């Protein structure tokens, strides 16, 4: 058809289009029923979060039982029949959990290096056991700095009996490692001695053992030793800085004794200090926390070195007798605590991620199943629009997800999992609401990639469990590593499973801290916390939610994913695929291997059918329901092969209340023709008009008045035959008693009503029962145009006869196009027939006309004794010189006798005369059958077929 050709003029009928609500209601009912049929799978899915919650609950109880032991509680003793608990009765493990309303007071202690690590400078070599400690100092005015430095370690004995008072006038120091807090000063509990720092020779003083009462009335006996300390001047602070860090802990003295070790007690820079100005910088030794590798301590011993500097300045200004004592240091009071570990918050994100993402493969599998089985296209061909399909599919899976997660959170809260109970339920609802929408959108988008249900399901499960493990053992390390840039975190969170993990991780962290500190978890106000990434997750998920929906809609249009023909990638800008150039109506030329091949001129009956179609271009005629106007389908050749012509310019007009039969060998193009008319394939050129509507532009409206019985049964195996008919009946606007009556009559017509067969799952049907159900589906709702592609395949003779009666009854008020390989079926049902070979009409007409025009022979069969075969041949040639023998075996011979040579009466007379000469055991004469016509036309067409 040329670009300017307006096309065939057929009055457009206005079929009763089901409303969006009608379509949505039908699909929703079908989906709900489908889920009821899959109750076992649904129970397994619902049980998964229950199992996870119970597992975490059991592990939590086991851990709580371990932490309830005495070693993880504050130490207690019984005094006068009363249990008394406190830090004074605790060992090192228990002490961390004691309540300390009045923390003990401890002397301010200097941090000094152990003997093996002390710097060995300037005053010669000392025995390892006598190596002095060293303090470095500098200042802008060396004389002033020297005066201040000489006053640093001045001390005097105290006459007080109070241990704190005594130690405040001394300068105690200790090499003992620090702890997390200063509730207990480890210098007075460990085996290391407490040193008294002096800037003069100890003169061989022996250690002194003192008994001091410092905590809870428990006396502590401690050994005090004199430690000679050198105070050495350096020219600048940079020299001190370089010397302090030069070789610091460079090697183990035991493993490498000659390696220099360089630790100092402190360093002082008195800068511009004078009588009117006190300006000092202090370097101090920061020790590691005991048994925590490279972690910094919770506090440092800085009070004493700062106090020494301040007291030195006071003595420099006021005289050597001035005092600024540091009586004690003490920790802040604290409440009692118990060791609490919320396992569900600590490792819960991994399990909760698995639970949250488990519905993804379910969504993926369901959508891909309907695409793989062409069920979505089947629904569309019976009137289900894309808007209704996607709206109900989306809302259906989202509703299932909401119910699933509501149950999940409710059950987790009931069994007291702190992940759910401590965090704000409002925040949890918003997070899961956004994520579930994103997951449904992502599932719809991912379904466009897959064509096989098993592949989609496997990939979906790998996605769930694979990304769960990656989140726990890969992504989590990036979240907890402060060196990881925010940009990298943001980039990884663009992947939906990582954004899910980040949200669950944040909830888990807040719940863990809340359980440990006996506080609430995450609240709305916590979204503004510096390290809280949930706000960013919300933004990412909302943006991706709408982005994935848009991409899913776009790909559904341009990728043939079960919704019919695909559109041009730029269809939203008005672009369309270019169609192949039309072939000439009567004669087409095809290039094959560089040579021209002439296609035979159309036969008169085919040319007459084309003229009918051409006349319809000029005059409207509502008696024709189906008009194919020069319909072609060409598959482009690949790898240097020529193009494949599947349909070569089909022109056909089917009247209302007519059953039109298409006969042809396999691969002739019959199914391709039907697939173009029902919207599964796009024509390369030409078009077809159904009820006056163009298949190129009005397919959505055509579907509402069309019924299809496809070549392969497209059924949900878990739905019953009755449920199939109810669903498709609703799509055809049937309701109430009218729908019930139509379903019942349809089941009865195809013999699926008795014995409750209609209420059995279609997966339990035999092949013949499925074909009968497919026929019933194609006829329900009184469609005006019906396509039946080999409807009687697999039926027994009784069922086939019953089906023929159904089709005969149905064609009274509708147009039917039927393909079949049964000549008997074609003659019984079809008002007109065509034989289709190599994509072309070879002949068209009713069966009698075809046999008359293409038969042209009588078939004579005679059985005699083998020795009489020559006499039989002589007899036949006597009255029909043009007769052909087509069969001969052991005395039985079959001849084709041209009707123009002889009439039936002559044949009878000649056979009776021959009986007098030799014995004829049996004989018969018949007219040409439709099967003979089919074989003859097919052979002739294939012999003359073009190379492409």
Automatic annotation (TrEMBL):
ABC transporter domain mapped to chain residues: 626-863
GO cellular component: membrane
Membrane topology summary: Multi-pass membrane protein
Keyword ATP-binding: yes
Gene3D superfamilies noted in UniProt: P-loop containing nucleotide triphosphate hydrolases
Keywords: ATP-binding, Membrane, Nucleotide-binding, Transmembrane, Transmembrane helix
Similarity section: Belongs to the ABC transporter superfamily. ABCA family. CPR flippase (TC 3.A.1.211) subfamily.
Protein name as catalogued: ABC transporter domain-containing protein
């Amino acid at each position: 058809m040329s670009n300017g050709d307006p096309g065939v003029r057929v009055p457009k009928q206005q079929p009763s289009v089901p409303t969006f609500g009608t379509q949505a209601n039908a699909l929703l009912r079908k989906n709900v029923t489908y889920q009821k049929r899959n109750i076992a799978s649904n129970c397994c899915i619902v049980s998964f979060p229950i199992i996870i919650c119970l597992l975490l609950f059991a592990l939590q109880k086991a851990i709580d039982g371990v932490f309830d032991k005495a070693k993880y509680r504050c130490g207690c003793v019984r005094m006068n029949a009363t249990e008394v608990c406190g830090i004074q009765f605790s060992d090192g493990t228990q002490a961390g959990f004691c309540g300390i309303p009045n923390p003990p007071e401890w002397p301010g202690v200097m941090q000094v290096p152990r003997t093996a690590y002390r710097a060995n400078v300037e005053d010669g070599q000392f025995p390892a056991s006598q190596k002095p400690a060293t303090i470095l100092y500098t200042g802008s005015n060396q004389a002033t700095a020297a005066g201040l430095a000489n006053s640093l370690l001045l001390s005097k004995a105290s006459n007080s009996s109070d241990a704190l008072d005594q130690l405040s006038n001394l300068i105690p120091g200790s090499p003992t490692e620090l702890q997390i807090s200063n509730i207990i000063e480890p210098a007075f509990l460990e085996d290391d001695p407490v040193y008294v720092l002096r800037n003069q020779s100890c003169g061989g003083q022996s250690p002194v053992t003192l008994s001091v009462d410092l905590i809870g009335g428990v006396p502590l006996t401690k050994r005090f030793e004199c430690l000679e300390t050198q105070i050495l001047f350096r020219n600048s602070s940079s020299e001190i800085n370089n010397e302090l860090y030069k070789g610091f802990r460079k090697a183990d003295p035991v493993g490498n004794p000659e390696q220099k070790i360089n630790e100092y007690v402190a360093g002082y820079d008195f800068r511009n200090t004078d009588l009117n100005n006190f300006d000092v910088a202090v370097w101090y030794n920061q020790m590691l926390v005991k048994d925590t590798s490279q972690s910094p301590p919770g506090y440092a011993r800085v009070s004493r070195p700062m106090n020494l500097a301040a007291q030195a300045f006071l003595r420099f200004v006021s005289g050597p007798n001035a005092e600024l004592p540091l009586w004690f240091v003490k920790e802040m009071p604290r409440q009692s605590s118990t060791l609490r570990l919320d396992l569900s918050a600590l490792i819960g994100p991994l399990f909760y991620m698995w639970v949250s993402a488990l519905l993804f493969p379910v969504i993926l599998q369901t959508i891909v199943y309907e695409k793989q089985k062409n069920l979505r296209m089947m629904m569309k061909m019976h009137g289900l629009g894309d808007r209704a399909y996607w709206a109900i599919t989306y809302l259906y899976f989202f509703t299932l997800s909401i119910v699933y997660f509501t149950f999940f959170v409710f059950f987790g809260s009931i069994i007291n999992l702190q992940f759910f109970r401590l965090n704000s339920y409002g925040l949890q609802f918003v997070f899961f609401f956004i994520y579930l929408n994103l997951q449904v959108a992502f599932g719809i988008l991912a379904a466009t990639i897959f064509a096989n249900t098993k592949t989609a399901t496997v990939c979906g499960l790998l996605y769930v469990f694979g990304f769960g493990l990656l989140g726990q053992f890969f992504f989590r390390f990036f979240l907890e590593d402060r060196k990881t840039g925010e940009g990298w975190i943001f980039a990884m969170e663009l992947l939906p499973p990582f954004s899910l993990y980040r949200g669950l991780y944040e909830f888990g962290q807040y719940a863990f801290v809340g359980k440990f500190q006996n506080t609430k978890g995450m609240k709305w106000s916590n979204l503004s916390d510096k390290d809280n990434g949930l706000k960013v997750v919300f933004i990412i998920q909302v943006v991706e939610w709408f982005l994935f929906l848009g991409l899913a809609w776009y790909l559904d249009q341009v990728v043939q994913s079960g919704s019919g023909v695909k559109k041009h990638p730029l269809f939203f800008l008005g672009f369309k695929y270019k169609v192949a150039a039309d072939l000439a109506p009567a004669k087409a030329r095809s290039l094959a291997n560089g040579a021209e091949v002439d296609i035979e001129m159309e036969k008169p009956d085919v040319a007459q059918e084309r003229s009918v179609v051409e006349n319809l271009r000029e005059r409207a005629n509502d008696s024709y329901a189906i008009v194919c106007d020069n319909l072609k389908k060409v598959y482009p050749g690949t790898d240097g092969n020529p193009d494949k012509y599947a349909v070569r310019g089909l022109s056909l007009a089917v009247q209302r209340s007519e059953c039109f039969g298409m006969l042809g060998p396999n691969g002739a193009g019959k199914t391709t023709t039907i697939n173009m008319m029902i919207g599964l394939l796009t024509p390369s050129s030409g078009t077809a008009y159904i009820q006056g509507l163009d298949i190129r532009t009005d397919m959505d409206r055509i579907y509402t008045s069309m019924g299809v019985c496809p070549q392969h049964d497209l059924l949900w195996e878990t739905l019953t035959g009755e449920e199939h008919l109810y669903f498709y009946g609703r799509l055809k606007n049937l309701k109430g008693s009218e729908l019930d009556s139509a379903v019942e009559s349809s089941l009865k017509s195809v013999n699926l009503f008795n014995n409750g067969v209609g209420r059995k799952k279609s997966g339990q049907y035999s092949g013949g029962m499925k074909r009968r159900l497919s026929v019933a589906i194609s006829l329900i709702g009184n469609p005006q145009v019906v396509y039946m592609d080999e409807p009687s395949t697999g039926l027994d003779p009784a069922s086939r006869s019953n089906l023929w009666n159904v089709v005969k009854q149905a064609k009274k008020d509708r147009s039917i196009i039927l393909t079949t390989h049964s000549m008997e079926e074609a003659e019984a049902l079809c008002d007109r027939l065509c034989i289709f070979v190599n994509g072309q009409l070879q002949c068209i007409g009713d069966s009698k006309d075809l046999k008359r025009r293409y038969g042209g022979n009588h078939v004579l069969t005679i059985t005699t004794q083998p020795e009489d075969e020559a006499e039989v041949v002589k007899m036949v040639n006597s009255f029909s010189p043009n007769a052909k023998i087509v069969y001969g075996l052991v005395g039985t011979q079959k001849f084709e006798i041209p009707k123009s040579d002889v009439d039936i009466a002559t044949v009878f007379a000649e056979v009776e005369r021959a009986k007098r000469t030799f014995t004829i055991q049996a004989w018969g004469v018949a007219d040409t059958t439709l099967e003979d016509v089919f074989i003859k036309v097919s052979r002739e067409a294939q012999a003359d077929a073009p190379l492409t």
